Amino acid sequence: MNYKSIGFVTALLISSSITRAQDSLGTQITYDLTAETAVGTGDYTAFQLATNRHHVLSTRPNTAYLRGAVHVEHAFNKNWKLSGAVDVVTSLHADHKAYLQQCYANLTWKSFFLEAGTREQQQVVRDNLLSVGSFVKGTNAKPIPQIHIGTNGFWTVPYTKSWLQINFDCGYGKFLDSKYREDKFFQAGDVNEAYTTGAYYHQKQLYFRSNPTKPVFVTIGIEHAVQFGGTHHKMINGELISKKKPTNLKAFWKVILPLGDSHYFENEAGEDWVYGNHIGVMTYQIGWNINKNHQLQAYLDNPFEDGSGIRKGNGWDGLWGLQYSNKTPGRQYVRGAVFEYFQTTNQCGPLHFDGGDYPEPFRSQLKDKVTGNDNYYNHDFYDGYSHYGMTPGIALITSPIYNKDGYTSYRDTRIKAWHLGVNGEITDRLSYLVKGSYREGWGTYHQPLAQKHHSFDAMFQGIYQLGPWQFSAAYAFDKGNIYGDCSTFNFKINFHGKIL
After folding, report:
1. How many Cβ atoms are within 10 Å of 25's Cβ, its own excluded?
2. CA-CA distances (angstroms) from residue 234 to 67, 178, 208, 404, 447?
3. Does 85 reside within a domain?
4. Using CA atoms, how far apart are residues 386 and 382, in angstroms rounded to an integer?
5. What's the CA gap between 206 and 137, in Å, rounded?
6. Of 152, 268, 311, 397, most Cβ neighbours within 10 A?
7. In a domain, 207, yes or no
């Protein structure tokens, strides 16, 4: 899958919809024009301004971009709908000068969809504005192009009297950052031992929720993502050795569940103990509708990379949160609030010892087994779970793009962090958003830090809405030894127009 094929499909969609527009009231064409700049001091754009925004605003300091998007939607009848978008960004003082941020086509039937392309996906159970996000499928990195099917929101299961709702999504895609990884490897060959190009992507999610209109409701679910396939390049004695993984139908099937090769040692492919780099999170959430307008939810997102994490062998690791939502119409000084504690220090313990890592006759003689040192996001074959240097998951685990020496894996995955987010309306036109996080990090079990990393990162933003125009101004800063002392002023203008 590449941008040429995605663009062709979307162009057909737009031209078809425009052709039908004169004879149908079911077609809508809208557009968005955006200009944004971030200026200040420090080595980076302040963390809270650059994070959880699909990597649109660069992490580099003193950056700006122009963005234009066209959205098309055509309803054939009450059940069938076709939609799509083309979204282009041009940036100044950024890693990417001009690129397609979104380009997709979506076919919807009732509550279900089939979609192909690159699209900024929203989180299912975490607040997109206030939360630190999802451990697996967050909003921090550039979207990964994919073909996937799923539900639009939660679908009420028939014959359950509205007591059971399901949300699912499943698809395959491909990482687009092969050239980025290759360039980083050769720019920093003294710290990077290897890199992988052409990796494929598999993701799925399944959530069950009881009736959210009842006084108390529960949500449980799982998200799972895999990097697989691709070609691994490693420098050995001055020679670049490449090893390619299959991307046939069998490979696509084997990554649905964490399956592996029982003869991986004999095949000299230790990475095939389980095919691909698997990352997952299990969610347990309970909600209380205080009344029809006020809601409180408590949740735990438990991360895992193998069975030890699924069995909660990782202690207190996870995202523990409280979320308040105010649905009262009109101006509300507090529209929502989130408080979260995020911990990844346990990782099922510091040791990993498995007889399967050794040849016979030792393998059958070694009975003891310790499955720890999960080293979240990192992987020997795929460097790490990242896209253009940014984690697709929770950004509090510092993304490789912030490694000044060009190292492409995660250096600081054992962290503790506290986060608060609040938003609301001051007047009918003026709203605000405040976010702040404090985190401490100890490196990894393989390479613990000699000095604890720490950072306090905060943002204050005001948004003014005037018809189709939206103006925002923000100030954010970082204090600590992770991003350094950064201070950034941010200004953004957006216009939303309608063609049809």
Report:
1. 8
2. 38, 14, 43, 21, 20
3. no
4. 9
5. 12
6. 397
7. yes
